[in-house]
């Protein structure tokens, strides 16, 4: 399934693929794969809940149980590209190849742009040789090219290389529960190197906006700053730059929320959006939040899910990493 880079913004923990392979019985794709209605109403709260339930089942390896819920969520107007991609993975895992391709087409229609991930995602192994798969990859690659066009393509590519190294060392450290001293040291050294380079990049170019480096690399820049925990003054320096970019439509409001919380926590203050956790006696624990009674309103304003759902997602992610999924 799709890995969401934003999961790594909460703390320095690998965001693993939200799935494991299932050997559950197959379902019928022909009878249960509906066509999109001519006009799609906004999804109801119940439809969104169905989609989230389906994702939670898929995360625990119950693809056959998840798939009917994905179908119901689609019928009720859910068009989130990540959900549609995850439904494709679930269909592929239970051998419903035609349905998996249909979900991938829907994800492409919704703007899904992770072509390289599609080509290597083990969940899609059953459909990778199907005639329609290459066509969908082309559509998704076109989405990617559009979203990641950049005024400075060389800088875009450099930021993407940097964030791939960032993720690589975190995958290695997370695979052993962050208990290996050498792996942790490689992660620290990578952060120090990336922070030094980010300082140079921002000094020369200002904040890496979507227009400057494309959407993916702009979010990569955020993540590299988010992981500059050894230099909290630099994180604080970047905060108003990202605020300005968001106000101009050139940055992500969710990224701004995560960085705001990171800076506040580093300064010993309560966080604002409830994005930051720490480990207390081996347990994932939310750090203090200012005006916690209204945190969900603040989260909704920047497009984040309710805090309870976020906590549950983080707990599932931690279990997935610890179990090597």
List the helices and strands and how they pair.
Elements: H1 29-32, H2 45-59, H3 63-75, H4 81-93, H5 97-109, H6 115-120, H7 131-147, H8 153-175, H9 181-205, H10 210-213, H11 215-226, H12 232-247, H13 253-266, E1 277-280, E2 283-286, H14 295-301, H15 307-322
Antiparallel strand pairs: 1-2
Give a short synopsis of this structure:
The chain has 325 residues and is mainly alpha-helical. The chain is 61% helix and 2% strand.
Q: Structural class of the secondary elements?
A: mainly alpha
Tell me the strand order in the biggest sheet: 1-2
User: How many domains, in number, for the residues?
Assistant: 2
| Low-pLDDT sequence parts | 3-38
| Total number of beta strands | 2
CATH superfamily label of the largest domain? Tetratricopeptide repeat domain
Q: Measured on Cα atoms, how large is the radius of gyration?
A: 20 Å
Whole-Å distance between the termini?
11 Å
Number of helices: 15
The helical percent reads: 55-70%
Shape: globular
CATH class annotation of the largest domain:
Mainly Alpha
Quote the average pLDDT: 87
């Amino acid at each position: 399934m799709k890995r969401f880079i934003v999961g790594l913004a909460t703390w320095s923990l690998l965001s693993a693929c939200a799935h494991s392979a299932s050997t559950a019985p197959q379902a019928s794709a022909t009878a249960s794969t509906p066509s999109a209605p001519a006009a799609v109403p906004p999804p109801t709260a119940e439809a969104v809940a169905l989609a989230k339930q389906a994702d939670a089942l898929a995360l625990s390896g119950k693809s056959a149980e998840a798939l009917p819920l994905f179908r119901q969520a689609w019928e009720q107007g859910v068009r989130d590209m990540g959900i549609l991609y995850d439904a494709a993975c679930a269909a592929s895992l239970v051998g419903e190849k035609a349905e998996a391709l249909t979900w991938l087409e829907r994800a492409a229609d919704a703007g899904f742009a992770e072509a390289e991930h599609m080509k290597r995602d083990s969940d899609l192994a059953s459909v990778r040789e199907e005639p329609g798969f290459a066509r969908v990859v082309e559509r998704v690659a076109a989405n990617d090219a559009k979203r990641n066009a950049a005024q400075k393509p060389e800088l875009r590519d450099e930021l993407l290389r940097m964030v791939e190294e960032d993720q690589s060392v975190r995958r290695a450290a997370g695979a052993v529960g962050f208990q290996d001293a050498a792996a942790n040291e490689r992660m620290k050294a990578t952060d120090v190197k990336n922070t030094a380079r980010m300082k140079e990049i921002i000094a020369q170019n200002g904040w890496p906006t979507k227009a400057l480096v494309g959407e993916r690399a702009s979010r990569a820049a955020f993540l590299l700053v988010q992981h500059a925990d050894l230099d909290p003054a630099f994180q604080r320096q970047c905060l108003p730059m990202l605020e300005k970019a968001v106000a101009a439509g050139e940055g992500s409001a969710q990224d701004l929320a995560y960085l705001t919380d990171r800076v506040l926590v580093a300064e010993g203050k309560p966080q604002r959006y409830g994005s930051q956790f720490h480990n207390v006696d081996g347990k994932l624990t939310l750090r203090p939040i200012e005006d916690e009674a209204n945190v969900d309103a603040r989260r909704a304003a920047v497009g984040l899910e309710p805090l309870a759902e976020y906590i549950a997602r983080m707990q599932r992610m931690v279990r997935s990493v610890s179990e090597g999924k």
